[in-house]
Specification:
CATH architecture: 4-Layer Sandwich
Radius of gyration: 16 Å
Number of helices: 6
Strand content: 15-25%
Structural class: alpha/beta
Largest sheet: 5 strands, mixed
Order of helices and strands: EHEHEHHHEEHEEEEEEE
Number of strands: 12
CATH superfamily: Metallo-dependent phosphatases
CATH topology: Purple Acid Phosphatase, chain A, domain 2
């Protein structure tokens, strides 16, 4: 049920953390705050210590100090752990090798509770990209089967139908133009920045997208932004 999903407590100040990809050192630094942590998905794979990142995230959850949104990497890991057939992926194999039985079991529990998107006032948090149907209600329970279109947008963004040179789908930012005026979408998934800072892009309808994946675990670094319900946002931390 939706009520079983993780939620942001009322009245808290937030730290929104982008894709971590196994960068345990960066993640430990990012979460050293009294703010409530909202992590945008892709905690795991690529970087050196996905297990330590997961343990750190679960400690935050247990202390009532944070949550994560489901990213495509958590979704794939949970499917593998559940015995479902997925495309072979060396990064997932490395992550699996780091997980003890207790951590594997916890991953399945927490991915089942993780929302695909969260609305927080004039802000929407999502891993991959906005679908306007997200504005109509809360995230459903994702499950481990083939995701419905709105959940697929949350996990993977908006594909163009073409493949990139690495074989993965090319993704469009057309959805940014459909963000309504007054709404800011914080997302990750794709490393869009060219200067090491989160990319801020304003859409045709007047809304704004902030891309917080700056390459942690993949040769870049971890980024986050602090948000306060009273004053908006504070400077970006890198």
């Amino acid at each position: 049920m939706v009520s079983e999903q993780r939620r942001i407590p009322p009245g808290v100040a937030l730290r929104v953390v982008g894709d971590v990809h196994g960068d345990a050192r960066g993640f430990a630094y990012a979460v050293a705050t009294d703010r409530f942590i909202v992590q945008l998905g892709d905690l795991i794979d690529q970087g050196p210590d996905s297990a330590a990142v997961l343990r750190g995230m679960f400690e935050l959850i247990d202390a009532g100090r944070g949550l994560f949104l489901i990213g495509n990497h958590e979704f794939k890991l949970a499917r593998v752990l559940a015995g479902q057939a997925t495309r072979a992926d060396a990064a997932v194999a490395v992550t699996l090798g780091q997980l003890d039985p207790a951590l594997r079991a916890r991953v399945l529990v927490e991915v089942a509770r993780a929302p695909a998107w969260l609305r927080w006032g004039d802000v929407l948090f999502v891993h991959g990209g906005l679908h306007t149907a997200m504005l109509e209600g809360p995230s459903p329970v994702v499950g481990l089967g083939r995701p419905e279109p709105v959940v697929a947008r949350a996990l993977y963004g908006e594909p163009t139908g073409r493949a990139q040179p690495d074989g993965y789908p090319e993704r469009s930012l057309r959805w940014v133009d459909r963000i309504p005026a007054g709404l800011t979408v914080y997302c990750g998934h794709d490393r869009r920045s060219n200067d090491g800072r989160p990319l801020v892009r304003r859409g045709a309808a007047g809304g704004t997208a902030v891309f917080l994946d700056t390459g942690a675990g993949k040769g870049g670094h971890l980024s986050w932004i602090d948000l306060d319900p009273a004053i908006g946002s504070a400077p970006i931390g890198l």
